[in-house]
Specification:
about 180 residues, alpha+beta, 3-stranded antiparallel β-sheet, 5 helices, about 25% strand, globular
């Protein structure tokens, strides 16, 4: 068991309280905004990776994003300005949580080949296979040893959070810049 934090739309949390659990409801996904819809394939790929690596079904939803540090909602950029949100402190079993290296997630989002070789992927399969390195903490840490100017920051994914796993709820109103 470990403590994690997640920020969510207040409406998503209200729905979770009624249902008994929070899940990655596509209704609240970042790519509902037309300008961000191009990220949907990366999130679909990530959902498949979560199911493959944990053996847990997402039932057509997306994983819930977690951090091991409290989000600094005061700096903004988490939700749309004026939108109410919550930061949840949760206690989750290790087996349901999947770690990903945050910087390498950008490779999947932007469809970049994750390699330190000077070449492009030769196929879609090679491109997507390269992204799988973001789940390999030994590989990520070895990169830091090879390139000391880099560092690692991990995010975590879980299929759902039961209301009983929530230790604290902090509300906020987004004041910062848009996503």
């Amino acid at each position: 068991m470990a403590i994690y934090y997640t920020y969510q739309h207040a409406a998503a949390w209200e729905a979770a309280e009624k249902r008994g659990y929070l899940f990655g409801d596509p209704e609240y996904a970042v790519f509902q905004d037309e300008e961000l819809a191009l990220y949907r394939p990366a999130y679909d790929w990530l959902a498949g990776q979560y199911e493959k690596r944990t053996g847990q079904s997402l039932a057509g939803a997306y994983p819930v994003w977690l951090s091991d540090t409290i989000p600094d909602v005061g700096r903004g950029g988490y939700l749309e300005p004026g939108e109410p949100g919550v930061v949840l402190t949760v206690d989750l079993p290790d087996l349901s949580v999947l770690a990903i290296e945050a910087g390498y997630w950008n490779f999947a989002v932007n469809r970049w080949f994750l390699t330190f070789e000077d070449r492009e992927a030769t196929s879609e399969e090679e491109l997507q296979t390269s992204w799988e390195k973001m789940f390999d903490q030994d590989w990520c840490e070895a990169v830091v040893e090879e390139y000391p100017e880099t560092n690692t920051k991990y995010y975590y994914l879980v299929n759902r959070i039961e209301v009983g796993q929530v230790l604290d709820v902090m509300t906020f109103i987004e004041e910062g810049a848009t996503l």
